[in-house]
Amino acid sequence: MVESGSLSSRPDALRLQYYSNLTAALSGGNFELARTIGEIYGWEMDIMKHISGLQLGYKLMPSKKWYVMLDDDTYILNGSLKTILGHLNPSLSYYIGNAIGDYKARFAHGGSAVVFSQEAMHRIVDQNPSVVAKAHLESLDARWGDKLIATTAMKCGIYLDERYNYYFNGEAPQITRIRGDRFCAPLISFHKMSPAQMREIGRTFKISVTSCLGSIYGRYMERQISTVSSPILFVLIGTMLVEWMKLP
């Protein structure tokens, strides 16, 4: 995004200055300064990565059927995700997740995971490059990156499908509420998890076919991450790692 010149018209933007200071600190080996910059301004700089992360993921792997964006403290329940997406057609435009927001813009909460179909990404990235270019500039001032994703998609005629809200969860397991509409529904995600807590979830929750709040507890989970043969591309915002999750 920065190297491509997408933000060249805003060279004095504060977030670009934070990014420049961070890269300079890393290049100079001043990791303590880099850590301090990240702790203070990391959340703001992450907002610039949402659109560029999705765009890069699609450009590198346009043949993926599904594109999943999530925070780096989000844990995905693999079997549940596979089950839900297995009932949807990636050749149609899908944008799904845990809906939040107001009448101005309903958007999928990034911490609960955001899912786009292949066709939706094609319409956004390939068919509307000017909209994407404008979104890069908007990321310099946007308050929330996940809301920016929604407003960008809306400009391309793609709106959040709220029929799938209750499959996505933006809370840690200990405080996830068991609601009537979720009790027998596959649960896709947990949020605000440290690496140690994720490992603990792996020992506590096991996915056989699907996991729902009514049956998930007391099981054990083995998370499988492997090859690019998966039809789903995962883009993690924060560390900006790209992973491919092997679906059994």
Topology of helices and strands:
Elements: H1 14-27, H2 31-47, H3 49-60, E1 66-71, E2 75-76, H4 78-85, E3 95-97, E4 99-102, E5 105-108, E6 114-117, H5 118-126, H6 129-138, H7 145-155, E7 189-190, H8 195-204, E8 232-237, E9 242-244
Parallel strand pairs: 1-8
Antiparallel strand pairs: 1-6, 2-7, 3-6, 4-5, 8-9
Helix pairs in contact: 1-2, 3-5, 6-7
Structural description of this entry:
The chain has 248 residues and is α+β, with helices and mostly antiparallel strands. Helix content is 37%, strand content 14%. It contains 8 helices and 9 strands. The strands form 3 sheets. The chain has a 5-stranded mixed beta sheet with strand order 3-6-1-8-9. It has a two-stranded antiparallel sheet with strand order 2-7. A hairpin with a 2-residue loop joins strand 4 (99-102) and strand 5 (105-108). It is globular and about 50 Å long. The chain starts with 13 loop residues before the first helix and ends with a strand. The relative contact order is 0.17. The model is unreliable at 215-228 and 239-248 (pLDDT under 50). It is a single-pass type II membrane protein. Pathway: Protein modification; protein glycosylation.
